Fold these 3 entries.
Entry 1:
Amino acid sequence: MSTPPESPTKAHLPGTVLVADEPQYLPETHLHDKPDVLKSVPEANLHNKSDFVKDLMFWRNKRLNVLVLLVTTATWVVLEIYGYNFITVASWVSMALVSFMFLWGSTHRILRKEDPDLSGMEISEQSAMESAKLLREQVEKSVRLIFCVGAEKEWFVFAGVVACLYAMSLVANCFDLLTLCYIGVVGGLTVPVIYVKYEHKIREYGERFKMKLQRLHIKIEEIMQKMKKKMAGEHREMKEKKME
């Protein structure tokens, strides 16, 4: 008795894809091993490029803040109070650093018999490009702010900026550049912390001050409109008298 011919399967037909009769299931480990987005991204890219400045301004690294304050205060005292020249102080500091590095390198060669590793003192191209990009963005923001304030329709914004610049010019007449730089550093390390701590109250007072300025602006506009109407009425009366 002859056996019936086998029916052609998809595997025997030309131009078809081989398909298994029984479904194959992936192991459970593959189903749960999904890539984590946060883990795949380097930690350096998760933070903003200006995190160092923010940490310095908001006292997140207290040792660094204390070091900056001590260095700036010592520089201001030496140059301003004791009257030393900047080049003299810079030469002394450079000599101290070179002497320390020479002693450290010599001691390192004597004890370990190898040259010291100075790779950590190199400035990478990426950090230099990021610093240059950050500086360019800040300059662009400053220039854009100047043009926006100059072309602003609200006069009190323009008046406030001009008043602040005029106040800064008066303050600058009482101090030299070194003292102004020292005041700027100390202010940059204290004002942001105070603002963050009392942000709600400062915004509340700022909104009240802004509302008062807007009311004053409306009153001045009403007075100007009345003066224009009065001048227009007087001009018409003058024309009528001339016509008579």
Note: Residues 1-49 have pLDDT under 50 and may be disordered.
Entry 2:
Amino acid sequence: MANTFLRRLSLPAALAVLTAAASAFGAGTAHAADPGGPCDPRVSKYGLYEVSTAVVEPVLTHWKGITIAPGTTGSIETTVTEVQNVSTTFNASTEINSEVGAFFAKVSVKVGFSVQTSKSSSSTWSQKVTLNFSRPGDYAVFKGTNRVQGKADEYVCLPRDFRYPNSGDGYWAYLFGSHPVYSTFDAQIEGTVSCDTPVSPGTVQELARNKLVCH
């Protein structure tokens, strides 16, 4: 129906309709700031993403409870068990190409710390931990990180003038309704806590201490 309608219009009128459609393509609800800059639709039509939302939460990835008996303090090596795995994903895929890697670099700017920008998983972290204990007691030996999850806004490169789609002169337009989901994480955090260790709320340390049986 739409194609029939355009064929009935004169060329200038048809171009006006296409221009209006392109404007609507980039309009809609609130989204990330306009990335700006020109683009070439012949080369890079897709692949530009901006950060829409970013939620940071602590995640406990490895944990083990140990008891240090009197007379056994000092340097101790132990193996922690994986509790939860975190990885870099984009729209449920663990394959991170250069465009998605550039997006994760923008996530780092958004949250204020460096996140993983390539294929990565906390399962690759070594499970052995060597620590020093100065007094006996019950301890939690742990590893963890801060996970970042959210949505992205997607942009597509459109010709600036639809009469010349192969001119190479284009602009990035917001792709309404496209919100790829992502997940990534911060650097490794590891250490020990006991029942009387002061911890800050909303931290990996708090999650580790909460798994101890404290009386």
Note: The two ends are 74 Å apart (CA to CA).
Entry 3:
Amino acid sequence: MTAASTLSAVIMTPFLTAKLAGQYVAVDAAGLLFSTLQVVLLPVLVGAFLNQYFQGLVKFVSPVMPPIAVATVGVLCGNAIAQSSSAILTSGKQVVLASALLHASGFFFGYIFSRMLGLDVTSSRTISIEVGMQNSMLGIVLAGQHFGNPLTAVPCAVSSVCHSILGSALAGFWRQTVPTQKQD
């Protein structure tokens, strides 16, 4: 995650959840803030610290970290989806459509706005992928820790699947159609 998206997640998640839930939901904003700091900021800080002071360890574990991350996402998404499979079957089309539109617009506007700001193609692609693939796992973790109903994690789990499919397709398309070297 970029510094801007990390800061946005830490500040906005508790605030928006408390203000825009659509119905009365008891929200522990301080608890959400603390959990968000644990899930978003702490790993970034630990990673930066390890990268700065333990480069040998980082070089050793780096090859195995992507598969571990993918497996973790798979287990968390699978758990959220399995607990709510009947709800997904009844309203899944709307959740999938909303999630796909959310991520597609993130990919599109992330790229367009960064190009409008004068960033090169490679940086714009990176920002597009970052915006389009915002961390749905944060939503699953927060929903599981702070809301008793397992259905609250379903949109995040579906969202994670959608952004993985759309992000992979977009990255593959860009790799095949436009060189990845810096361009203006």
Note: The radius of gyration is 18 Å.
